[in-house]
Amino acid sequence: MRNIVAIYSRLSEEDKNKLNEYDDSQSIQNQKSMLISYAVSQGWEIYNIYSDDDYKGSDRNRPAFRQLMEDAKAHKFDIVLCKSQARFTRELELVEKIIHGQFVEWGIRFVGFADNADTAIAGNKKARQINGLVNEWYLEDLSDNIKTVLTDHRKKGMHIGSFALYGYKKDPEQKGHLVIDEEAAEVVKLVFKLYASGMGRTNIARYLNERGIPNPTEYKRLQGMHYKGTSEYSALWKYFAISDMLRNEMYIGNMVQGKYRNPTYKSKHSKPVPKEQWIIVENTHEPIIDKALWDKVQNMLSERAKPMCTGKVGIFARKTRCMYCGYTLASQKNRGFYYLRCPSRAVSGINVCPGGMIAQRFLERAVLDELNYIINQFFDESEAERRLLLQNKSESEKKDLKKALTDYQSKKADVENAIKDIYIDKVKGIITEQEFMDFKSSFQADARTYGYKIQEINNRLSDLKQRDEQECSVKDILKRYRNIEHLDRTIVETLIDYIEIGRNDNKVHKSDLPPIMIHWKF
Q: Residue 405 in contact with residue 454, Cβ under 8 Å?
């Protein structure tokens, strides 16, 4: 019998002992050493060690995690070994889907060394599910606590974020305060002056690129900041970077935060927040742009703004991005057909980016094909059975939670009544004042514990209800668009977050498609 093991380790926080940004942290190394020793003691053969450093347990896009799942599906090993189940995932949904679902289907055993999680032990499943439930509560409570603290800091005008806005830097003497970065601030002043003189935003971007001035992302990288998301095509100034800068009140000394928000702690995509809900605190730091220049630029922006009702909105408007530089693709008409092209060359003057490009009619066909494939998979009999199994597990969990809720509510009511009883005993002289205080303190501690448990269970029940509603919503959406033959703007807006488009220079036929990555909303 094979006993080939895959080791997975993860660290969720920045480690201060890293020698450089490419080194594994000391904690990761310790995890690996412990797990290797355990595997050797069991006589298991190690296939590979998968390591994710500085990733959360709720992040499903961890690179090593994703590679491990691909190799697991290919059955390259028989066992997955982690320090604990929480190191693998903190989401109960993934515990059920992967550990109790896919791993079982693929014949793979999961072992958590520190918390005794082992799918080879039949009586161990309840404990693993409880651990998953506790981890889920932990994530939700942690998220709520962090949001409360950060919102409070924002309302006090403190800067929250890993990096300061371009033109500023973090004050080393005062946490949450910004000071001017003179080098970058000169570029900000130049942008405002050029626009005030009549130069358009695209021409300003081209002007800066021709002079080799690094854009904000590249500037941070050159300053030695570990800024994620950079690429060889991300050094260009672009129209939207100039436009955002010209409208940013931060440059007149006002702290503007809370412009984006994650719908839930599980969501990886921030959603825009209406401007009236932004947190704006005036005069929190030194301005780079004086009020007179700011007012002039805002008036010019208002005068040049195009009415929203002008023209017809394309079905993919603001939904397609260049796969190489991230720039929003522009629509162009040629010989009666519409094409979506990356306009980076317009702001660079040089062929820096390969330039994502596709004919709109081909993109429509590709989106329809993938959408219909997803819908057919969703309503496939085996997939429906899997969802029914998860639904049954969810109903079973709800039943257990409601039973536990009733139990804790009863216990809380009992201790609250006990407090009333000992008060009467104290009045009657049956117990002393000190005895009353001791009993009262103990009963109040129990009441708080039961109250906390009740809140945890209510939160979990609410989460399950929300998940069921989302499942029904997705089902309704996919059912509504089953077997559609044509796209329109409403369908694209409803179903698609954004689409990444690459370039295909080696195509044999005109219909050969470039690389396409569709990011669905569901």
A: yes
Q: How far apart are CA 238 and CA 216, in angstroms?
A: 11
DSSP run (H or E) holding 31:
helix 26-41
Write out the two tokens for 176. Answer: 């949450």
Rounded alpha-carbon distances, angstroms, from residue 168 to 188, 229, 292: 10, 20, 21
Cβ-contact 14, 54 below 8 angstroms: yes
Assign 304 to helix, strand or coil. helix
Tokens 């932990």, residue located: 138
pLDDT, one tens digit per residue, over 36-88 is 888 888 899 999 999 887 666 556 678 899 899 999 999 999 999 998 887 88
Distance CA 158, CA 107 (A): 52
SS3 of 123, please? helix
Cβ atoms of residues 88 and 58 within 8 Å: no
Asked whether the beta carbons of 237 and 347 are under 8 A apart, the reply is yes
Q: CB–CB of 401/457 below 8 Å?
A: yes
**Gap between the Cα atoms of 166 and 187, Å rounded:** 9
Provide the token pair at 197.
Answer: 């003189």
**CA pair distance 514, 357, nearest whole angstrom:** 8
- Name 267's Cβ contacts closer than 8 Å, sequence gap at least 6: none
Q: Which two tokens stand for residue 346?
A: 């317009």
**112: Cβ contacts below 8 Å, ≥ 6 apart:** 82, 83, 84, 85, 87, 88, 118, 128
pLDDT in tens, 272-312: 778 888 889 999 999 999 999 999 999 998 887 654 444 45
Residue that is written with structure tokens 């702690």 in the block:
265
Inter-CA distances, 203 with 194, 199, 236, Å = 9, 6, 13
DSSP per position, 337-360: EEEEE--HHHHHSS--S---EEEH
- H-run or E-run covering 81: strand 79-82
Phi, psi of 362, deg, nearest 5: -75, -35
pTM above 0.70, yes or no: no
pLDDT digits (tens, 9 = 90+) for 153-196: 888 889 888 889 999 999 999 988 999 999 999 999 999 999 99
CA distance to 134, 452, 470, per residue, from 465 (Å): 18, 20, 9
Residues 6+ apart with CB under 8 A from 453: 404, 408
If you ran DSSP here, which 8-state letter would residue 328 be given? B
Report how far apart, in Å, the C-alpha atoms of 231 and of each of 58, 116, 268 are.
26, 42, 21
Burial class (CB in 10 A: 0-12, 13-18, 19+), 300: middle
Phi, psi of 372 (to 5 degrees): -65, -35
